[in-house]
Design brief:
The protein is built from 5 helices and no strands. By secondary structure, it is mainly α.
Length: about 200
């Protein structure tokens, strides 16, 4: 039995150093594996939330496409007709029952920015998602600006509907370009998300 006056052999010291080194290496490896797993889980959860939100926005646009196209045609017919351009003739001709703007959901995007979970996604996919939300924001801004500037109580104070009809016509031209473009982006993005994310539990 060794005591304090007899140091350990060189082989024993080397064995201890190796064992300590291996233990530290395995601990670091386990920590890295755990971090990688957490990143995969967060990325997968982020993609599931994005998918759910994008499908909601996609359905919202699709539910309004027919009305927006019909409204645009009605307004063009009103402007091209020889009938008096009054509010009394505008509403029966145009069949107007509101602009039905799309209110886009963006909770998943805001959450991803807040917890920086976009960094867990592949750069190409993160860019595609960012592009979709940028285009949604552009359409939302167009809708909000039009509603605030044109559809005010004073708009319907007079009898001449020419200015209103022309403003709505210009607005709907943009809407009928941007909405189909967004639907195309959704159709491109959703399969990319589906290839990675599992369904929500």
């Amino acid at each position: 039995m060794r005591d304090a006056f007899h140091p350990k052999s060189l082989l024993g010291l080397l064995t201890e150093v190796v064992l300590i080194g291996v233990s530290v290496f395995l601990a670091l490896l386990a920590n890295q594996w755990s971090d990688a797993r957490q990143h995969r889980e967060r990325a997968n959860a982020t993609l599931r939330y994005f998918r759910e939100e994008i499908v909601t926005n996609q359905n919202a646009i699709e539910s309004r496409r027919q009305y927006h196209e019909a409204l645009s045609r009605d307004i063009e017919s009103f402007l091209q007709s020889d009938a008096p351009k009054t509010l009394q003739s505008f509403f029966p001709t145009v069949h107007f029952h509101g602009l039905e703007p799309v209110t886009f959901e963006r909770s998943a995007w805001d959450l991803a920015l807040a917890n920086q979970s976009l960094s867990y996604l592949a750069p190409k996919l993160a860019y595609a998602i960012s592009r979709v939300y940028t285009r949604q924001q552009a359409l939302q801004s167009l809708e909000n600006s039009f509603l605030q500037s044109v559809l005010a109580p004073s708009t319907f104070a007079g009898q001449d509907a020419t200015g209103l009809a022309r403003s709505m016509d210009a607005y709907l031209i943009d809407v009928n370009i941007q909405e189909p473009d967004l639907l195309k982006l959704y159709a491109q993005l959703l399969p990319q998300i589906d290839a990675i994310a599992s369904p929500l539990q």
